[in-house]
Amino acid sequence: xxxxxxxxxxxxxxxxxxxxxxxxxxxxxxxxxxxxxxxxxxxxxxxxxxxxxxxxxxxxxxxxxxxxxxxxxxxxxxxxxxxxxxxxxxxxxxxxxxxxxxxxxxxxxxxxxxxxxxxxxxxxxxxxxxxxxxxxxxxxxxxxxxxxxxxxx
Length: 153
Hints:
Elements: E1 3-6, H1 12-25, H2 36-44, E2 49-55, E3 58-70, E4 74-84, H3 93-107, E5 112-114, H4 122-129
Parallel strand pairs: 4-5
Antiparallel strand pairs: 1-2, 2-3, 3-4
C-alpha cells in the first residue's frame, strides 16, 4: 500500500531523481542544474517542502511546494513539481498527492494553489479539470537565471 507523507531529508536524493525524470518527460532534462547539496540546504532552511508517495521505502511520486504570496489573492501554496513514476500511474496515487496538497493549503490558510502545466500535456490538464481548476492561457512566464548549467565534461 502506498503511503503519502512529508519527505525525510535522507530521501531528497530520490526526490531530485524524480525531478530529473519529470524534466526528461517535459523535454528539458538540461534545465535541472540544482545539486543535491542545494536541495539539502534549502530543505533545512524551509525554503520548500515535499509530500512523497512511498512504496516499499521507494519514493514513487512527489508534490514539491512552497508557500508564497499573491498581491491579488493573498497567501498561496505554489506547487512547483508534481510527478508520479509512469509505472505507478492510474492507481490514484496522483489524486492522493494532490488531495494532500489541497489539504495542506487549507491548513496553512492559503487563499489559492498555483502551478503550471505544459500546453501539450493534455493528460495532466484533464487531471486538473476534474478538480475544476482554472488553467490560465493568457499569462506568459518570465524568469531571470542567475546560475548557468553545470558543465558536464
